[in-house]
Specification:
By secondary structure, this protein is α+β, with helices and mostly antiparallel strands. About 40% of the residues lie in helices and about 15% in strands.
Length: about 475
């Protein structure tokens, strides 16, 4: 089988080939290494490679019977450079950790490896995942393969670009205020922020930290579901982690289950949206009618969302990064310093108000999902912007970023879902007039990943978007 055939095959098919013995893990590593050599210099998605380590793992794996090689059976997987990978340079996109090599992997990596994944590369990220454009002072910017002058979004931009260009079949991402969903939308791939605890990971800063979540990224809904199966499960090192559900996510995605009633909102009452993006995503949402669903314009009451998010985000940054600022302030980018300093200025009264507001917002969302199976929105409010911009400066006549106070507001359509503890994915749903991808956000109530995946597969089939990646950089 040629390298080109391997690179362009979907992950589910490749795993079936592995299970049948039609292809070996070593052949896949050779194919993806050759693809990286041909493509990555254009996009800068995978700045850290560890093929020697991956081949050593493959050597050990193939000594086992095929039936004992785990769910992924030796599939190479890219790991975001925010997660520790034992023995491999892990920078978190920061000059502070430019030469850091952890002794132990994050729990999420250990889980993937136990299920037959072969980590072979670290994907580029923004510094500590801050900001929704993937660039840092260690490796530079990651470029969007649909137009190399545009941003891949962030902070999981390296993972999304690797998938879009055939340098990965599956990738790990993480998401706080859209860090996984935004790059999926900008790059024309699928990415899911799962429920709190669905993917176990090593705690940092707080045992019960839950604004950030790790999740799967892939080219198709079925591949995404398989990756979530490989990532999901409880672990004693993560007290929030959930057990593996009785039905696999891949089975759920293939079930054909269709939503009965879905809500569409262009803005969630929180944000402007580029008119072309709004039109593309609305047309995609309305296609659910062809699957027998009632599609109505509605959204939960998100009053108080912006203040709640800004306070709890600042608190999270202070808890996890204050010590870094005390020791290395000169090496941190301005956005991180600003977030930490905002956290330092918080009062207990502000935290009390924000935490209680989050409870109220979550209750409203649950009441909403008692009526609607799904909530559909644009995954991002703008198409991919110039890579040199740190963030969009305006949308539909509304200016962003004239101060740090509002540089995050363009992410509201994603962070609203984070704040109410709901899972959501970004599904490719069309292209702008400039041939740039647009993603539809599909959200559901907590722990409804199976419902979301089933619906996303139905819509993916209706839209005919499957197979638009991988592409060569343009």
């Amino acid at each position: 089988m040629s390298n080109n055939e391997l690179i362009r095959a979907d992950a589910c098919t490749v795993v079936e080939w592995l299970r049948r013995g039609d292809v070996s893990p070593h052949e896949l590593l050779d194919a993806v290494e050759a693809r990286i050599a041909a493509v990555d210099s254009h996009v800068n998605a995978l700045p850290i490679l560890c093929f020697e380590r991956a081949r050593a793992q493959a050597d050990a794996l193939v000594r086992r019977p095929i039936g004992e090689r785990g769910l992924l059976a030796g599939l190479p997987v890219a790991i975001k450079d925010l997660a520790d990978l034992a023995g491999v340079r892990t920078t978190y996109g920061s000059p502070i950790y430019a030469n850091h090599v952890p002794a132990r992997s994050d729990i999420l990596v250990e889980t993937l490896e136990a299920r037959g994944a072969l980590p072979y590369a670290k994907s580029n990220t923004s510094e500590f995942g801050a900001g929704a454009n993937t660039f840092n002072e260690v490796f530079g910017a990651t470029r969007n393969p649909w137009n190399l002058a545009r941003s891949a979004a962030g902070s999981s931009g390296g993972a999304a670009v690797a998938l879009a260009t055939g340098m990965a079949w599956m990738a790990h991402g993480s998401d706080f205020g859209g860090s996984l969903r935004n790059p999926a939308s900008f790059c024309g791939i699928v990415g899911m922020r799962p429920s709190i605890g669905r993917v176990a990971r090593t705690p940092s800063g707080k045992i019960d930290r839950n604004l950030s979540a790790s999740g799967p990224m892939a080219r198709t809904v079925e591949d995404l579901a398989l990756m979530l199966d490989a990532m999901a499960g409880e672990h004693p090192g993560d007290p929030l982690s959930l057990p593996v559900p009785p039905t696999s996510f891949l089975t759920a995605a293939r079930s054909g289950e269709r939503p009965k009633r879905v809500a569409w909102s262009a803005t969630l009452g929180l944000t402007p949206v580029d008119p072309e993006v709004a039109a593309i995503t609305r047309r995609a949402a309305e296609r659910f009618a062809e699957a027998g669903a009632t599609v109505e314009e509605a959204h939960p009451d998100f009053a108080g969302m912006h203040e709640c998010f800004h306070v709890l985000r600042a608190y999270d940054y202070y808890v996890t990064k204050a010590e870094l600022m005390r020791r290395h302030r000169d090496l941190l980018k301005p956005e991180i310093i600003w977030n930490i300093e905002k956290g330092a200025q918080l009062t207990l009264e502000e935290l009390e108000r924000a935490e209680n507001q989050r409870v109220t917002l979550s209750r409203r969302a649950l009441e909403f999902f008692a009526t609607y199976d799904l909530l559909l929105t644009p995954a991002t409010i703008v198409p991919p912007f110039p890579v040199e911009q740190r963030y969009p400066t305006e949308c539909d006549g509304v200016k962003f970023g004239d101060s740090f106070e509002n540089y995050l507001d363009w992410l509201a359509i994603a962070y609203a879902i984070t704040m109410v503890c709901c899972p959501a994915l970004s599904l490719p749903c069309g292209f702008t007039s400039d041939r740039l991808p647009v993603g539809l956000q599909i959200a559901g109530p907590p722990r409804s990943e199976a419902r979301i995946l089933a619906a996303a597969k139905v819509l993916e089939d209706l839209l005919g978007v499957r197979g638009t990646t991988p592409i060569d950089p343009k």
